[in-house]
Design goal:
By secondary structure, the chain is of the alpha/beta class. The chain has helices spanning 29-33, 92-104, 120-132, 148-155, 170-177, 229-232, 260-267, 272-289; strands spanning 2-10, 13-18, 21-27, 43-48, 55-61, 67-68, 73-74, 78-84, 108-114, 137-139, 159-163, 203-206, 212-215. It binds guanosine-5'-diphosphate, magnesium ion and zinc ion (ZN).
Length: 291
C-alpha cells in the first residue's frame, strides 16, 4: 500500500503522486456506492496493480482538511485572492465574497494586488483596506516582476489555490514563479486553448521551492451557499473584536443603535469599503433565507 496525493483527475483516472512516482489509478467501486468521489488534493492510499506497477487503484481517502464543490478540490491551506489595481477594474465585493468563502472553509485568505505598474496609488489603497482587515497582503506586478519574493515566501511549503476574476493575472503570476510551466495567459489567442497547460481541468503543481499550487478554472465566482446572515459578521475578522461592545446582543451592525462596529467604521478603525460590502452581503443573505 502506497500513500500519495491526487494531482489530476481525468476521465475516471486519478494521477497520484507518490514517492515511487506518479501512478495512474482507477477508483474503487466502493467510493461510488458510498457517494464519495476522490478529489484533486486528496491524500489517498493506493494499491499497485500486480501486472503493472505504474498503475493502481485508490483504496482509501484520508480525512480531509476541507473540501470545495466548485471547483472540486480538497485540502487547501490558503486561497490567494487576486485583484488587479486596474484593468480589469477592481471588484472588491468579489474579493470580500472570496475571503468569506475561504474563512467559512477554514482556509487562510491572502490578498494579492497585481498590476501595480498600472496604478500604484490605487494598488496601495486596496492594500491598506485589506491590511486593516488583518489579512496578509502582497502587492506585485507580474509584468515588472515586482514583489515576487514576498509571494514566493507565502507559497512556500503550503498548498495554495489562486482565486479572482479572469484577467487579473493569476496565470501570469504563476508563470513568473515557475517559468517552465508555461500556463496560458489571457492575451494568448483562442488557438492555444487546447494547449497542454490551458486551465480546462484542475491540476496540482509542485512548486520548485516547496509546496503545491492548484491551477483551476474555478474560484472566480462566489456561492453564498451555507453562509447565513447571522454568521456573516464572524467571517469579517476585523468586526469580531467590537461585537461584544454593541448595545444589543446579536446586533446585525446594520441599523441598530449603539453599534460598536459602526462606531469603528466612523473612526476609521474598520475600512468603510469593507463595511459597505458587509451590508450588501448581509441584505443578500437575509433575502436568500426566505427561499
Ligand atoms: N500591466 C500588467 N499586465 C499584466 C500583469 N499581469 C498580467 N498582466 C496581463 O493581464 C492579462 C491577463 O493575465 P492572465 O495571467 O491571463 O490573467 P488570469 O485570467 O487571471 O489568469 C494578460 O494580458 C497579462 O499579460 C501586470 O502585472 N501588469
Ligand atoms: Mg488564467
Ligand atoms: Zn453592532
Amino acid at each position: 500500500m502506497l500513500t500519495g496525493t491526487i494531482i489530476k483527475g481525468i476521465g475516471g483516472f486519478y494521477y497520484v503522486k507518490t514517492e515511487s512516482g506518479c501512478i495512474e489509478c482507477r477508483s474503487r467501486g466502493k467510493f461510488r456506492q458510498a457517494g464519495e468521489t476522490p478529489l484533486v488534493g486528496d491524500l489517498v492510499h493506493i494499491q499497485l496493480t500486480a501486472e503493472d506497477a505504474s498503475k493502481g487503484s485508490v483504496e482509501e481517502i484520508l480525512p480531509r482538511k476541507n473540501v470545495f464543490i466548485r471547483p472540486p478540490v480538497a485540502n487547501i491551506d490558503q486561497l490567494i485572492i487576486t485583484v488587479a489595481a486596474k484593468n480589469p477594474e477592481p471588484n472588491l465585493l468579489l474579493v470580500d465574497q472570496l475571503a468569506i468563502t475561504a474563512e467559512a472553509a477554514d482556509v487562510r485568505p491572502v490578498i494579492c494586488v497585481n498590476k501595480l505598474d498600472l496604478d500604484e496609488d490605487f494598488g496601495r489603497k486596496i492594500t491598506s483596506i485589506y491590511e486593516k482587515a488583518g489579512y496578509p497582503v502582497v502587492s506585485v506586478s507580474a509584468r515588472e516582476n515586482w514583489g515576487m519574493e514576498a509571494l514566493r515566501e507565502i507559497l512556500k511549503d503550503k498548498t495554495t489555490a489562486f482565486a479572482g476574476n479572469s484577467g487579473v493575472g493569476k496565470s501570469s503570476l504563476l508563470n513568473q514563479l515557475c517559468d517552465y510551466w508555461g500556463l496560458a495567459t489571457g492575451d494568448v489567442s483562442e488557438k492555444t486553448k487546447r494547449g497542454r497547460h490551458t486551465t480546462r481541468h484542475t491540476e496540482l503543481f509542485k512548486l520548485p521551492f516547496g509546496g503545491y499550487v492548484f491551477d483551476t478554472p474555478g474560484f472566480s465566482s462566489y456561492e453564498a451557499g451555507h453562509v447565513t446572515a447571522e454568521m456573516l459578521s464572524s467571517l469579517f475578522p476585523e468586526m469580531v473584536p467590537y461585537e461584544a461592545d454593541c448595545r444589543f446582543k446579536g446586533c446585525a451592525h446594520v441599523a441598530e443603535p449603539g453599534c460598536a462596529v459602526k462606531e469603528a467604521v466612523e473612526t476609521g478603525a474598520i475600512a468603510k469599503e469593507r463595511y459597505d460590502n458587509y451590508c450588501i452581503l448581509y441584505a443578500e443573505a437575509k433575502n436568500q433565507k426566505k427561499w
